[in-house]
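=== Discrete structure encoding ===
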Amino acid sequence: MTKGYVLDPTGFRTDDNEDAGPPLPGLKGAVIGFRVDELWRSWDWVSEIWAEMLRQEGAEVRFWRAGGRTGPVGEKVIRELDEFTDELDAFVVGLANCGSCTSWTIHDALWGKKKGLPTVAVATRHFDELSQNLARRGGESALRRHILPYPLDIRQKAEVHDIAKDHYRPFLRTFGLRDRLAVEPAA
């Protein structure tokens, strides 16, 4: 008699970490890093607006642009990611706006979270569920994620800037700054 195994694709990891990680304690003096990519100009625009607003609140902001992920170039990118995250107090990773971009966004966000950084992965609405599933599959189902509208990249720059401004305070709340934001007026 032939023996067969049935695998249940709906199972969850038994070692899943349901802790979102440390919140960002404050902005003044914090070094916040944005991981941007080579594809989504809309994410460049959002991160530029958020960086400007973070600087106005006393944070230092740094950017790192991820490149190719295979072969020697991919190895170099991972080294750069590791070095970049070593310099940070908090990490923002985007943009989950396609299948592979979502995979790499979550991969890089998990890298920061596992280093103990307050970390937020940014996705568009269409890729919200995929980003959640990838975080869960990576053993970090509570990874902080901020969701932007979809489609985002086909919009005009001014409209994306408005979306970024509208999402700034909710983005900070995603980082765990709820208490501080409850008493401070919007900038």
About this structure: The CA atoms of residues 34 and 47 lie 7 Å apart. Residues 31-177 form a domain with the Rossmann fold fold (CATH 3.40.50).
